[in-house]
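[step 3/7] fold_predict: job queued, chain A
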Amino acid sequence: MTTWHDWTTTPISTDILRGALDLEQTERGVLPHRLPARARRQVTDGQLAMAESQPSGVRLAFRTRATAVELDVVATKRVYVGAPPRPDGVYELLVDGHLVDRASASDGDTFTIDMSAGTARTRPGPMETLRFTGLPDGEKDVEIWLPHDETTLLVALRTDAPVGSPRPSGRPVWLHHGSSISHGSNATTPTGTWPALAAASGGAELINMGFGGGALLDPFTARAMRDTPADLLSVKIGINIVNADLMRLRAFGPAVHGFLDTLRDGHPTAPLLVISPICCPIHENTPGPLAPDFRAMSEGRMGFTATGDPEEVVAGKLTLTVIRDELSRIVGERAATDPHLHHLDGLDLYGADDHAELPLPDGLHPDPATHRRIAERFARHAFGRGGPFAPQVR
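[step 4/7] structure written:
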């Protein structure tokens, strides 16, 4: 740590944290979670446990005159056996809403995943100090967005001037749930995920409950959303249910109804937008389960493939095409008695023509340019004039 600043250490608490639903105290620091403790006690899936601890959309937010900031962190580096190395997670510092600096932790705990063997192991690693200097003088609102795809223990926050809570933004709180695409897979920065970009464009405060591999209509996720204060809600449903070959059509419809019923228990009149899957050719007409493409991995690329039998669709197996039709039907029927419920076809965000121009690099996840395209289209549809999230004219 540098010594020529007169440092003020500020405890990291929910007072200066946005986008997290819980803050776990550990021996080495505090760990932001995007599911509350009650929900985590019901999680037996290691993939979801990892995803919810990755702080997509989570940011430290404070008001200060500081021109220098230090943040001590322990990052968790994921290593997939046989796959190319993953880039370091990115921390972004914004001043009054404008990006002024980025940093990364090059070391930390290591979480090694062997997809072919179905095993995982963790090796503890060191803490690192991130430094942001040369911030503009004067009172300002500062945000530090944590890496969207890298679990991060927060150890200490230091500044060369005192820190206070940020001013109320007056912006509506948008609570969104979805899959790894909403989580931000293949985005390169935390403010570059499509929900973060759409929130910035629409003037909303984001709470991102996009979980890689974890948008499975879990009741504990619905209850967490029910109990989280929010002005605007959206759920993006489908791809993970097909990936996991989780259920058949008979179970899917009631599960969607149950999830939406639970959301309405806590948010009876909030605008609620149901989004169907974007285009993903491997699963448009082929059911799951999803599997790693080991040929691609042998060539140094990450890739995925669908392994189901299209002939089984007539027996109730789910594809993205089936799910889009069912979601449209369900929302249409419910909207007759719920005027605040809306539907958005995911193909309007990213369709076959988009895939021809901007293909999914690994067959499943959009690249940064596609995140921007999805965000622009979502913001225009949801926050634009007459959209479900647009301010109501009274």
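[step 5/7] annotate
The first strand starts at residue 8 and ends at 10.
The mean pLDDT is 95.
exit 0
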